[in-house]
TrEMBL record:
GO terms for molecular function: protein dimerization activity. GO terms for cellular component: exomer complex; trans-Golgi network. This is Fibronectin type III/BRCA1 domain-containing protein. Residues 407-416 have a biased composition (Pro residues). GO terms for biological process: conjugation with cellular fusion; Golgi to plasma membrane transport. Residues 275-468 are annotated as: Disordered. Residues 169-267 form the BRCT domain. Residues 275-290 have a biased composition (Polar residues). It holds the Pfam family CHS5_N. InterPro entries: BRCT_dom, BRCT_dom_sf, Chs5_N, CHS_Export/Cell_Fusion_Reg, Fn3_2, FN3_dom, FN3_sf, Ig-like_fold.
Length: 468
């Protein structure tokens, strides 16, 4: 191994393999050295000298390049940054709000999302956020406060916009109307509509914009070409589902100083000259024509509101029951002015004829024959009782036989004491009369008894159950 100079070092090539050489120094220093930097023909055991020098000029050039790159990065990404959008209110109506803002500035950042918030809650994402600069929010409540804000999210961070507070209009505030005029054939009416819009502080234009609320025209043709097909703005109004009304709607809103319904002002309908503010009554509020019962007078013509019609009434025969004695009201006892009315008040049949009413047992001292004699009336009186509905008094008792016209009391037949002694008689008290209560007849025979006048007198006391 040869000696080395002050600026160079002597090494012996110990191993040469795969592009790397192992060099051995004077004091057993061992370094790895690229074999491509060895002189040509150097093999294992060759002695080489390696000199090391510092390049000051190259260091300065490298430092200069490094700081130039840092300044370029700072000027590109550190000076400009994304800006928060500035939200503005464009128009507000009773149920919608139109917002607008300048085009978003992202600088060198990339956009992640642009969302609209209502009352602090994310509502939706703005479509095409890099080019879209306005939005219209519908379906709001009438006369209600709202807050709106935009949130811009980028790779450089999140940038919220300013907060806007909006209150939707009432029905009497027509300043939110923004119409687009199409073809209006009557020039005078067009000028009147524009004057009405100016009076209401509303807006109009010839092109459909994002805050346009109505399309006003009298023909779907394009302006200046009445024989041509539908105009461009008319077709766009159909695509945006804008209400297409006639100019009379604007005049009606200005006349009534409030938002008017547009159903009767659509294109193709005939607008009414007078606008009524009263709503159509529902079926439950419509006054239905009612008939007045016979014998009842009503100055207003109001009739019976019962769900079932009143029972038919026929005048009594033979002059026994007068029309004034029969009440025209249901469940009201007629005034006892005639004997027929009194007889009708004493016997009232049950509404359900299939169930026999309980019989009333006469009290002590009363006679059955007297009650039967007093209840014998003509067939016309019984027919009059059938025509009347009423309620029987629970405290009713058969009257005592005080009339002289009452027939004598028939003898009471003897009752057998036992089957073996048919001749035995039953001892009765002188102060009481035994009454035999017959069992109720079957339902089939009850129908026949209702058709008989004489049998109906033996039904006894009944009680009326009101169906109303």
């Amino acid at each position: 191994m040869a000696g080395s100079s002050k600026d160079s070092f002597t090494f012996t090539v110990g191993k040469l393999d795969a592009g790397m050489a192992i060099l051995l120094g004077e004091r057993a220093h061992l370094i790895e050295f690229p074999s491509i930097l060895l002189p040509a023909g150097a093999t294992t055991g060759s002695i080489v000298n390696i000199a090391v020098h510092r390049n000051i000029a190259e260091e300065k050039r490298r430092d200069s390049d490094f700081w130039a790159l840092q300044k370029e990065i700072y000027d590109t990404f550190g000076v400009e940054s994304p800006k928060a959008p500035k939200l503005e209110l464009r128009n507000v109506t009773q149920t919608s709000v139109t917002l607008e803002w300048p085009q978003v500035q992202l600088a060198t950042a990339k956009l992640r999302s642009l969302d609209i918030y209502r009352n602090g809650v994310r509502l939706a994402a703005i479509p095409q956020p890099t080019t879209n600069t306005s939005t219209k929010l519908s379906g709001l409540e009438l006369n209600t406060d709202y807050t709106f804000q935009l949130i811009l999210r980028t790779t450089a961070g999140t940038y919220p916009s300013n907060l806007i507070r909006v209150r939707t209009h009432t029905m009497t505030d027509t300043s939110g109307i923004s119409v687009c005029f199409g073809t209006v054939q009557d020039e005078e009416m067009l000028e009147e509509a524009k004057a009405a819009l100016q009076e209401m502080r509303a807006k109009w234009s010839d092109k459909i914009q994002i805050d346009t609320t109505h399309f006003v025209c009298t023909s779907s043709a394009a302006p200046g070409s009445p024989n041509a097909g539908p105009g461009v703005e008319y077709q766009r109004a159909l695509q945006l589902s804008l209400p297409i009304v006639q100019p009379q709607w604007i005049l009606a809103c200005a006349q009534n100083k409030k938002m008017m319904p547009i159903s009767q002002f659509y294109l193709g309908t005939t607008p009414s000259t007078t606008i009524s503010s009263n709503r159509t009554q529902s079926m439950s509020q419509v006054s239905l024509q009612r008939t007045v019962a016979k014998g009842a007078t009503s100055p207003t013509g109001a009739g019976n509101r019962a769900s079932m019609p009143p029972a038919p009434r026929r005048p009594a025969a033979n002059g026994e029951a007068d029309a004034a004695d029969t009440s025209a009201f249901v469940n009201q006892t007629p005034s006892p002015k005639s004997p027929s009315a009194k007889a009708a008040a004493t016997r009232v049949r049950s509404p359900d004829r299939r169930v026999p009413a309980p019989l009333s047992v006469p009290e002590e001292g009363e006679d059955v024959a007297g009650a039967e004699g007093d209840s014998k009336t003509s067939a016309a009186a019984i027919a009059a009782r059938r025509q009347r509905n009423g309620t029987m008094d629970r405290n009713f008792r058969f009257p005592s036989p005080a009339s002289q016209d009452a027939p004598p009391v028939p003898p009471v037949p003897a009752l057998p004491t036992s089957p073996t002694s048919p001749g035995a008689e039953v001892q009765t008290s002188p102060t009481s009369v035994a009454l035999e209560v017959p069992p109720p007849d079957p339902i089939e025979k009850e129908k026949k008894r209702m058709n008989s006048v004489d049998v109906e007198e033996d039904i006894g006391a009944t009680e009326e159950i009101s169906l109303n």
